[in-house]
Amino acid sequence: MHPSFLEILCCPHTRSALTLKEPEYDSNGLLISGKLYNERGDEYPIIRGVPRFVGQESYSQSFGYEWHRWSRVQFESENIGTRLAGHTTRMFDSVTDFTAQKINGGMVVEFGCGPGRFLDIVRTRGAKAVGLELSSAVDVARRNFAGDVNVLIVQGDILQPPFKNKVFDYGYTIGVLHHTPKPAHGLKQLVQLVKPGGKIACCVYESTDGKGLYDSKAVLAYRWFFNSLPAGAGHVLARWYAYFSAYILYWFFAPAFRIPGLSAIAGWLSSRLFPGVYYLRNAKWRVLDTFDAITPTYASTHTKTEVQAWFTEAGCVNTTVRPFGSTSLVAEAPNQ
Ligand SMILES: C[S@@+](CC[C@H](N)C(=O)[O-])C[C@H]1O[C@@H](n2cnc3c(N)ncnc32)[C@H](O)[C@@H]1O
Fold this sequence. Notes:
Bound molecules: S-adenosylmethionine
Radius of gyration: 20 Å
Helix content: 25-40%
Largest sheet: 7 strands, mixed
């Protein structure tokens, strides 16, 4: 990490400033290890260039597993010339309105960055990119941005973020708050970190009364099953199912969804028995997204009204719904 990022960090519990001790730097002057202390002597280590504010992954183990296995599948650079070229950038632009003109030269934070596919877009648009992530995916993200002085990866909890208030120009969280026990609280924390007038974007799973993948009966049952097994076994079985769905079931479901008459049967089967991401024309990406749907400990779904209320309660103004979907919104941080 570049040492200049130290000034935005604070203790997540007392909110006080931190003092660095025993720092070690690499040959480029980047901080690779050290210890951060708050005013009462609590210690937070910096390990392999990542400041760590949580001792363990907590409920995010499935994500640690997922991102170590599929560390760059969704990165734009991995998809050049393929059918999914541009997919991640289009998703970012339909959830946020953070164009290069707006964010260039600013500092942008992502809550729940995983391995960093969206941070990669932010940094290429000329902004400093800061990712907060609970799981061991921080080590994957750090490797993905090795040596980049404009990227900071931090291991911590978005429900108790280790950043000072109002230090970021923009903040976003995509596909994350519904994986926490307190999504509204998570958004409030993000809003507090953004400067007055700065923008915040948030995208969460939409409630569909069981018609969509994420709240279908099949996905709910699979999640319950994999989470009731010991973590190691649950992850391996879920991975096998994800491969089965992406490489075998896909060849029935993808055409069936396009044939009138068969599409209703395919819809019934996928929502009751064989969940999967059957619309993506990239097998690795299907495996990853299917695993991602059937394993998380928390995965709530929400309505537009709920998400609007979260923004309002956090003091935001000018809330607008984004093209990505009814539960993708952008708003302005409060003016004080
Ligand atoms: C579905 S992934 C999305 C990752 C990234 N936003 C993307 O779309 O590529 C959700 C991420 O949120 C992280 N996460 C969940 N709860 C969190 C928390 N309380 N604090 C920080 N990260 C969290 C997970 O570990 C996981 O990497």
